[in-house]
Structures are given as C-alpha cells and as structure tokens.
Amino acid sequence: MSTKQFTTQNAPEGYWVDAKGILTPVDIIKEIDQERDNLVGEIVKLSVKVTDALDELKTHRQSEPLNGHGI
Which alpha helices (DSSP H) does the chain contain, by range? Predict the structure, then answer.
C-alpha cells in the first residue's frame, strides 16, 4: 500500500488533503481508506488512457474518407 494520495493538490509529507482542503496525518487514515484512494487513482488513470485512445480513434476516423463502406 502506498501512502501517496491520489490528488492534484499538494500536501506536506505525511499528510493527505481532503476535498475541503483540510490536512490529515496519514497515520490516522484507515488502511481501507488508503486502499480505496489507490483504487480510485488506478481507475482514473486507466479512464484517462481510454478517453485519450477514443479521442485519437475519433480524430483518425474523421480524417479518413468512408471509401464506400457506409460507416
């Protein structure tokens, strides 16, 4: 398990920051909550990759003629 929080906000070493900007020491955050944060981070990273791939596919598809395929 990582003690690094998945967020774009900066927090001092050993702290996590919540949605309201409140700093919480990592050592009082439950392990399950840290694991949930890691899972959400992995899902978000994967979702960004999928979104980028779909955008690339749409751009590529729009730039090619249909060639009579009717697609």
Answer: 31-63
pLDDT in tens, 5-53: 677 778 899 999 888 889 999 999 999 999 999 999 999 999 999 999 9
* CA–CA dist 53, 32 (Å, integer): 32
- Per the DSSP assignment, residues forming a β-bridge with 15 are 25
DSSP class of 27 = G
- Residue 65 tokens read as 């003629």
Residue pointed to by tokens 């697609």? 71
In order of 7, 14, 58, the CA distances from 41 in angstroms are: 8, 18, 26
pLDDT of 71 higher than 60: no
Answer positive or negative: Cα dihedral of 30, 31, 33, 38. positive
